[in-house]
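Please decode residue identities from the backbone states below.
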């Protein structure tokens, strides 16, 4: 019996020997920190972004949370504008998209310099988003990068983000620009990249948030939308566009090697809260690899060799879009097929979370409840 037990332990997946510890928690009376973005370009340096809200939610203080010693110490760095997203090329050089501009750092997020104004929306199209068009950026080197966002916005820069020009292929899908947005961009290397978005026409009915009208939300049917995809095999020198009918919305996209993971989220009336698809970058095929009724996936990362992780929340009750935080759940796989749940600090709760790390051994999670978790042996 003892020999059998030892054999089982030795053969157990790595997921069971690793766990997620609570490394940082913002705990200031009368306020809360909502983290919405995370980058960990190296094992030592990490940057999270978000806002600190008082109880009335009327006077947010925008902030970055940075570490340079592998999470042993964290410092809050004030920001001047609401941060939408961040991207880091290495452990010191990064860009931050805000509602009003594009910012640059060479000091791992400890100081930022504004290098460009946000690209403004075209008011002739009708209702316009707050701030500018750009939601996120991706850079292949210090000069060459791309930006995506509202109103079919896809732009390219050759000077580090100071000036931008539109990518013509992004406008080709037949959809109204005012209801079309590109939300995700990822590259597997310096050549192969994907931009994803959707066309979502407005729905009639109440304008109240879904969680405030739970009965209406549960009766609401998931309606087909249009998925927009741009792909490049040559670092953005050329792009090819395509569309496909979908339900749900693209929530996250991550590529590595010849594989990728795409996370789609659904409304409360749908059978699953979310679904994860594996992307084969060699054949352009895709297949569903994870969906579970009590796991709402909000983030995914994949590494060469098919090691991957999913960040999830256990929904509270039947209304999965409720703002009430649920328990944080993290799953891992070594083959993009079989997923195992990992041990997570019991105190970790969230409505949304994001994963980031340079490799599978140095991985982190930031939550919208002001928590940072670290993967440890």
């Amino acid at each position: 019996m003892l020999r059998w037990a030892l054999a089982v332990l030795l053969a157990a997946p790595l997921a069971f020997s690793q766990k997620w510890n609570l490394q940082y928690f913002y705990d200031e009376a009368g306020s809360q920190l909502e983290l919405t973005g995370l980058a960990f370009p190296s094992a030592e340096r990490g940057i999270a972004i978000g806002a600190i809200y008082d109880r009335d939610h009327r006077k947010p203080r925008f902030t970055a949370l940075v570490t340079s010693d592998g999470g042993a110490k964290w410092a809050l760095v004030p920001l001047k504008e609401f941060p939408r997203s961040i991207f880091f090329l290495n452990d010191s050089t990064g860009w931050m998209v805000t509602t009003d501009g594009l910012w640059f750092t060479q000091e791992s997020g400890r100081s930022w310099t504004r290098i460009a104004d946000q690209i403004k929306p075209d008011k002739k199209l009708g209702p316009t988003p707050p701030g500018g068009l750009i939601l996120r950026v991706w850079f292949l080197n210090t000069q060459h990068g791309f930006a995506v966002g509202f109103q079919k916005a896809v732009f390219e820069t050759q000077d580090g983000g100071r000036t931008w020009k539109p990518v013509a292929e992004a406008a080709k899908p037949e959809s109204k620009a005012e209801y079309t947005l590109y939300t995700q961009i990822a590259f597997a290397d310096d050549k192969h990249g994907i931009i994803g978005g959707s066309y979502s026409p407005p729905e009639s009915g109440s304008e109240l948030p879904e969680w405030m009208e739970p009965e209406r939300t549960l009766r609401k049917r998931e309606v087909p939308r249009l998925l927009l995809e741009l792909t490049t095999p040559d670092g953005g020198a050329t792009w090819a566009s395509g569309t496909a009918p979908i339900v749900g919305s693209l929530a996250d996209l991550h590529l590595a090697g010849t594989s990728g993971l795409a996370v789609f989220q659904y409304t409360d009336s749908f059978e699953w809260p979310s679904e994860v698809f594996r992307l084969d970058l060699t054949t352009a095929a895709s297949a569903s690899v994870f969906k579970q009724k009590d796991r709402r996936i909000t983030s995914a990362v994949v590494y060469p060799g098919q090691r991957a992780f999913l960040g999830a929340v256990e929904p509270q009750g039947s209304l999965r879009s409720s703002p009430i935080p649920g328990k944080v759940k993290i799953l891992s796989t070594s083959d993009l097929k079989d997923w195992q749940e990992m041990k997570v600090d019991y105190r970790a709760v969230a409505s949304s979370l994001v994963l980031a790390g340079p490799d599978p051994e140095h991985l982190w999670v930031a939550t919208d409840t002001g928590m940072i978790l670290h993967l440890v042996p």
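Observation: The chain is about 5% helix and 50% strand.
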